[in-house]
Amino acid sequence: MNAKVNISNRAGASFPVRRMNFDFDQVPEYWMNGSAGLTHFMTGLSALFPDGEKLFIDAVRAVRYYPAIKDNEELQKEISAFIGQEAMHTQEHVNFNASAQKYGHDVRTLERITGRYIQFALSNFSKVVKPFGMTREMVNLTATTALEHFTATIASELLRNPHIQDLMTDDTMSYMWFWHAVEENEHKAVAYDVYEAVFGKGLKAYSLRTSALVFAMALIFILQSYFTLRLLQQDKKLNFKELAMIYKYGYSPSKGIITGMAGEMLAYFKPGFHPNDLDTVQLLKDWKAKLGF
Ligand SMILES: [Fe+2]
Ligand SMILES: [Fe+2]
What we know:
This protein is mostly helical and 293 residues long.
């Protein structure tokens, strides 16, 4: 594993910010078990992170000094650590995405497409919900809570699914994804707590957060599938064998990472839902020990 870990908990939050410094130079082209399909599937996800995580940071920052939470010292510390962790994730995914570029995989264009689609989706969604008194800040924040639920859920599935872990045959890449997965679960409640504290738990807040989840999941599915197919096609590896691998480890009922997270995704629709209802305490304890945190 090529990484230096620098852990800081100056914010005094319930979780630290770990400054990583991965060296992606030695990562092989098809680092996911030698499979182009599986590698591009993960690269398609990685392309979503730089602009996605920028949205999360900006959305929480935009409301952090609202009267409802500005004097909540505990939540302010959690927000600072949340911003710190997401900023580190962005930095490492940007570096990994740039390193994939050297093999001729055009991830930079995918990052740009992600940025454009996020803005397009948010501005159109905001127009639709504006007549119901929902502001752009509320939309940005609930897009964040929806996507944070997605990232925490896919992350905990990754930490539980031995079939996927076995395929992560490169030490640097597996460490990066496990580190990110642990932290997504450490901070999974922060944006949600901010949303409820600022915009409440009423019918309006509930209908916005649930419709945002449906909308956000459709967008992620379309973008990530398009990215995977585009990377495969540019790589001249778009064939039945690679697609079958993606189906088996992405979508099959027994081994798929996406199918494995379906139940927890649906929990978000419960009226009294809170991210900590999905218990990952022991899972995180085990993984932090394994990763040496
Ligand atoms: Fe993240
Ligand atoms: Fe996150």
